[in-house]
Amino acid sequence: MGAKKFTAFAVVSTMVFTLATANVYAAPGEQPPKAKKMAVLEKLSKQSKGKEKVTWNKKKGVPTFVTGKLSDKKAKTPADVKKIVEENKALFNMDSASSELSLISQEKDSLGFTMYKYQQVYQGVPVFGNELIVHTDKNGTTTSINGYYDPEVKSARLNTKATLSLAQALNKAKASVGVANVSKFDIQKGKLHVYETQKGDYRLVYVITLSTLEGKQPVYADVFVDAHNGSILHKIDKVNHAAATGTGTGVLGDTKTLNTDSYSGGYYLRDITKPMYSTGGKIETYTANYGTALPGTLLTDADNVWTDRAAVDAHYYAGKTYDFYYNKLGRNSFDNRGATLKSTVHYSRNYNNAFWNGTQMVYGDGDGSQFTSLSGALDVVAHEITHAVTERTAGLVYEYQPGALNESFSDVLGNLVENKNDPKWLLGEDVTTPGIAGDALRSMSNPNEYGQPDHMNEYQNLPNTREGDWGGVHINSGIPNKAFYNFVTTPGITKDNAGKIWYRALTQYLTSYSQFIDARNATIQAATDLFGANSLEATAVANAWASVGVGSSGNNGGSGDAYEPNDSMSAAKAMSSGTTYNGLISSATDVDWFKFTPSTSTYLSLSLTNLPADYDLYLYNSAGTLLARSEYAGTSSESIAGTIQGGATYYVKVVGYNGAMSTTKPYALKATY
């Protein structure tokens, strides 16, 4: 037999359940860590009436997404929220919520939900890429905790007193990206962090952010400088190029009505008509005059008849993007505080890119062959402005899956802003390869058409280099793009509602290192918040992600499991004595419930065998009280036995420990009574 993770007995009325036992080790009078974690999960299950959902970070052994009723206490302040996290800290192997979490932001939305976003800290130093988000509803009930927390950082016993000064780290960072001799920076700042390297060790680093156009090429990057020895540990290129992987069509030459600002003798290409203007925000368009100095010269005209096509499109489309975010999503500019939207056109010569540099939009004119003026496509403009929104909210790191999500959310919102009647859901078709009709950068309906995967079985594991597209940020974005396309084209789903769900997921639930499974969970939770857990939208979102190989569907677990849906106590499937039930735990969030009612008092023998991974077995009464559990480690069979009462209904739960699952090998569950 395998060693027990944790065992427990329950004596209820005349029922006595027997389980095999094994030794567990802890300090005198103290539960072992796994026992503490399982106790919190059981409490969560009871409070949530079996409707809780938990997704696991298998590498760290802690959750990344927990939904359900996390406490009986109400939370109205950050201090209240800290107490509730403290109540659930064993789930995360956390020592102290008060000393390990620092509040980043608090925001109440139109639904009455309040989001509390926390940064994990170690000895007061932020742990890079690890944030937790707690949501409470309008009644103060805590409904979810999600994000990333790393319990292993504490065991590194890192020296958090830097040897290098910030100025020294800045110089090393500048040299590493080739701008040591540059004097003008749009952004140059740094802050100490604890950083886990790709090798799994922890270092104290300065994360230096640099943005300048004065070098040989635009630089907008985070550089990780070891705070003790000055070595460069990592770089993240944050120049989100619109043209990195594709092609498009030409400027349409259509006539547009522009909002401008008059002065004595002429007009500025400045829009002061938007709600942002009440706090000083404007939409301004500049020209770099084929140079690289930013922002360049604010465009003017004597008669208010504008002939600079690139400038007209940049200005008009920035206004259209602002209007979409403000009117459809309630967001006031990219920072939600009415910040000025600044665009510069005619950047450099024959420049085949558009990008957000951390402070403004920049557009090249293209070379006339691969691209025409990049500002000539509304979806490209909205795509780049959405990068600014992402930077101010989820902060998705621009590498691997977080970077692919960063690109995908910009594609999604860019396409929704454009709002074309386009069955192919193309991106950048108005500016790519002006000599080739119908060409585009990407297709959300058919990512394969432009060399992108559309399912996880096509996912490309690429190196985190420029040649490797920083781990495939523009390539693997085809998978979440296809998921959104499958969702938005589901009968009954509207573009407006789809946009609200994706936007809410981005701004309320995603964190800097969110993976595809986190985006799946975030969009399902956003749909649940907006439309209800049993809504068409919530089911369609789950199905859309399942169709691209991310998570299970909202109907049957996406696994061919004949007993689904049975993910909650209320949806438990009836069992018969002596019958074997072969089910699947098909995702990290899947839980299977069964029930039976003996006609007379009798002896129960309950077994769970043929396990593909570490599954556990639980028995409850109809009130949701845990009667017995079996939690052997590994693939050892689980069993519960004891006397049960006639006429009473019992509930059986099968769950994977720390997210254990299999989509191919079914377990065997049998109750004899």
Descriptive account of the structure:
This protein is an alpha+beta fold and 673 residues long. Among the domains are: 11-26 and 568-672, Sandwich (Jelly Rolls); 52-153, Nuclear Transport Factor 2, Chain: A, CATH 3.10.450; 166-237, Nuclear Transport Factor 2, Chain: A (Roll). Helices cover 23% and strands 25% of the residues. The chain contains twelve helices and 32 strands. It has a six-stranded antiparallel beta sheet, with no helix packed on it. A six-stranded antiparallel beta sheet has the order 3-4-8-7-6-5, with helices on both faces. One of its GO terms (cellular component) is extracellular region. It comes from Thermoactinomyces sp. 27a. Extracellular zinc metalloprotease.
